[in-house]
Each structure stands twice: as C-alpha cells, then as structure tokens.
Design goal:
Blueprint lengths: L2 H27 L5 H28 L12 H37 L3 E5 L5 E4 L1 H7 L11 H4 L3 H9 L5 E6 L2 E13 L2 E8 L1 H37 L9 H29 L7 E3 L1 H16 L5 E6 L3 E5 L1 H17 L6 E8 L3 E8 L6 H4 L11 H6 L6 H10 L4 E7 L3 E9 L3 E3 L3 H10 L1
Parallel strand pairs: 7-9
Antiparallel strand pairs: 1-2, 1-5, 3-4, 4-5, 6-8, 8-13, 9-10, 10-12, 11-12
Length: 450
C-alpha cells in the first residue's frame, strides 16, 4: 500500500472520526458539562469501537471458511480484512493447484516402469514410488525415514552410493530376488539425491545371448580359419615356377586371413573380458618393467619409421591388477601410437602418480583425431578413419578392449587430441590401486621362501 492510499483510506477516516468526537464534545459542553470529561468519554468510546472492530476481525479470521469480511468492519480494520481475504484466496488457489499436481505426480509415479526414490542429505528415504519398493524389496510406508544403505546392504551398492558420480550407474541383483537385474543411477539435486532404479533383466538376457553368440561364433571360426591359413602358407611357401603367377593372389589371401585371425582373437578377448568375472585383479604388477618391454616391442614395430620412442616411468610405483589384462591395455595404446604416427614422429610413454590418480600415458605427435570422433572411439568397430584403420591392420575393437579391461580395474580411459598435431591417451587408475615397489631384500626373501 502506498503512502497516498494509506493516508486516504486509513488516516483521513480516523481523523474525521476524531474531529466529529471533538465537535460533539464542544457542542455538549455548552450545556454545562465539563469539556474534559466529555473528551475522556469520547476517547473511551473511540477505543471501544476499535476493540469491537478487532473482535470482529479475529472472529472472522478464526472461521475456517474465511468467506468475505463482515460488513460491520470499518476503516483500517476493513482494509486489513480485505488484504487478509485476498491473500487467503490466493493461498487457497495455490494450495488447490499444488494438491492437484501432487495427485497427478502420484498417479504418474505409480504408472512409471522405473523405481524412483528421493533421499535427503543424511541418506534417508523421504519418498519412493511403489515400483521402487518392489524392485528393492522395501516397505513403502514403514521404510520411509530409514537410511538407504542400511536397507540395501550389498557392498557394491554402498560403495557406489558413497562415491558415485552423476554419469555413473550400478548394475546388481535385486535384493527382492536374484533373478531380477537392476540398473541404478544416482542424480544429485540441491542437498538431496534422486535415485532411479530400472529393471534391465530382459536387456541383461539379450546382452548375455549376444555375448554367448559372439564367443561361440569366434570359437567356431578359429578351427576352419586355422586350416585356411595353413593351406595359404603352404601354397605361399611353394617355390615351384608354376606357382609364380599366383604369388600376388596368395599374398592378398594371407593378408586378409591374418586380418580375420586378429578379428577373431580380439572378439574372443572382448568376450572373455565381459564374461570372466572372477579373475584376480589384485596381483602385484611391475608396471615400469612391463612398459620397458612394451617400449622395446614398439621400437621393433616401428621398423623403418625411425620414430623417437621414449619411456619415463616411476620405478618405485607398482599397481594392483591383472598382469595379462594390463599388458594388453598398455601394448594396445602404444601400438596404436606407432601405427598412427608418421616417420620421425615422437611417442612418449609415461607412468606416474598425480594428486588424484595413477596415470599411464601415451602421447604422440601423429595425425590426431577430429573432435566429433573422440567420444565414440571406444565403441566396437568404430573407426575415425576407416580406410587408414584397415591399412594399419586394425580391427576396430582395440579401444573397446582397453575400455573394458580398465573398468575391471576401477579405471577409465581419457582421450585428448588435436587433429593434425597428435593425441594423448591416459589410463586413470584410482590411487588405492597403487603399491610401492618391493625392495631388493623383500624380493630375495620372497624367492627364498618360494
């Protein structure tokens, strides 16, 4: 309310009323009654009037129906009641809309095929839909307010919940039954978390069928492929003059059969990475020694390119992991650098510890990768340059294998590149996987005890 409205609607009417009281007291005082007593009586009546108006306002406000203000209200009390009434109407309208939206939300959440939970800053369940309670084996009413990690006790879930990022998800068996496979995602908002639980049992079955199909086909192809390769090598080694016109054909056949062999081997490797869940990934791996051997192999692979291949490795830093899988990851990245770096190029292999990660890094000044391809490089059979990849002998599965092997070591692959200037591939391992290289004395004791 502006000062102008306040003066016109509140102050002026009150002054008029007081003026009338004073005039009335003056007129009555001509009859001989003392003016002072008349003024006191008038002020008492004025105060009683406002007390009565206040009672009318409080009585009206206490009424739950809160209909239109009483007509008996005057002056400032009428203005106050009008403001109350308008705000109450707006509040009731907003409340009705909110109730309608909540009712609609409940209907929608019930119809959703996914489970949804809202968790507070102390990990307690504030709300969940019916689907979430059935997928996680929770009680929809009784478990509200309980800590989610006390209800879902799977160690992988607890670890995921305490360290999850926005783009991460977890797959595990449902607490309600092992035949149900769940995919869980956690989204932070304000000081709370939104948990989305999806039933991907059918998708898991289809993925399993695909994995088995790829593994079986790859195994079945190995034997006939070995026979074909054997015959091609036999024909190619035949030095008789009548075979000379077919030499180029045999060479092409050998090239393509070798490529098919590499493809089958990569498919089997990828299949093993997906299916072998009980491999020990906590062996002590001497990464510096491993990289030294890989660097030597890279020099041989480089051949006549005369590339400058350097190695910088922290000799005191080892890693907990699987030796075979890590060797495959590192050698894959280094061989890619050799294949896609031109003659006289620079390739640097590094192994070191940063504040947040243990890092194995391969940097080159090769052809680089265009930005639109980087996010898709780890997809199976994806090639940034299809023609060049085939010429280099690639199968399109190398980086997919790298990605899966790193995931089994709680690690991730980071790729940065500038087209025409080179690329940097980094394997980022959690610092918890790092171990100090054993001393010479420890190694001798281990040999003696063995």
């Amino acid at each position: 309310m502006s000062w102008n409205d306040y003066l016109n609607k509140v102050i002026v009417p009150e002054l008029k009323l007081l003026s009338l009281i004073v005039i009335a007291c003056l007129l009555i005082s001509t009859t001989g009654i003392p003016f002072l007593w008349l003024i006191i009586l008038g002020l008492l009546l004025f105060t009683g009037f406002h007390i009565y108006q206040m009672k009318l306002l409080l009585t009206w406000q206490a009424n739950k129906q809160m209909k239109a203000p009483p007509d008996e209200l005057r002056g400032i009390w009428s203005e106050i009641s009008t403001q109350f009434h308008q705000r109450n109407k707006h509040h009731r309208s907003t409340e009705a809309k909110s109730r309608h939206l909540i009712a609609q939300f409940r209907k929608v959440s019930t119809a959703l095929p996914d489970g949804i939970l809202i968790l507070d800053s102390l990990n307690r369940i504030e709300w969940m839909n019916k689907r979430a309670s059935s997928l996680l084996g929770l009680r929809q009413q009784q478990d509200r307010g309980s800590n989610i990690t006390n209800l879902v006790r799977d160690p992988s879930f607890v670890k995921f919940y305490n360290s999850s990022g926005e783009d991460e998800n977890l797959r595990l068996d449902s607490p309600a039954g092992n035949n149900i496979k769940l995919d869980i995602r956690l989204l932070p908002f304000h000081d709370k978390h939104l948990m989305i639980v999806q039933d991907f049992t059918r998708l898991h079955h289809m993925e399993k069928v695909r994995q088995d199909f790829v593994a079986n086909v790859s195994h079945e192809l190995r034997t006939p492929l070995s026979v074909v390769v054997g015959y091609i090598e036999t024909l190619d080694d035949d030095d008789s003059p009548e075979m000379e016109p077919y030499r180029a054909i045999f060479w092409q056949m050998k090239q393509q059969s070798d490529r098919m062999t590499r493809l089958v081997e990569d498919l089997l490797t990828l299949s093993n990475l997906e299916n072998e869940q009980h491999i020990n990934h906590n062996n002590e791996v001497a990464v510096p020694k491993m990289l030294e051997g890989i660097a030597d192999d890279a020099i041989i692979l480089s051949g006549n390119k005369n590339q400058n291949i350097t190695l910088e490795a922290d000799e005191s830093l080892w890693l907990k992991g699987n030796t075979r899988e890590l060797h495959g990851v590192f050698s894959n990245l280094v061989s890619n650098a050799v294949n896609y770096t031109p003659e006289l190029g620079e390739i640097a292999i590094r192994w070191y510890e940063s504040d947040d990660h243990l890092i194995m890094e391969v940097e080159d000044n090769g052809i680089g990768i265009e930005p639109q391809h980087i996010n898709r490089l780890t997809e199976r059979f994806y090639r940034a340059d299809k023609g060049r990849s085939r010429d280099a002998g690639g199968t399109g599965l190398g980086l997919a294998i790298v990605k899966h092997a790193l995931q089994r070591h709680d690690a991730q692959l980071s790729i940065s590149s500038e087209f025409g200037k080179g690329s940097v591939f980094r394997c980022l391992f959690p610092t918890e996987r790092g171990i100090d290289a054993p001393s010479i004395e420890d190694t001798e004791d281990h040999i003696l005890s063995a």
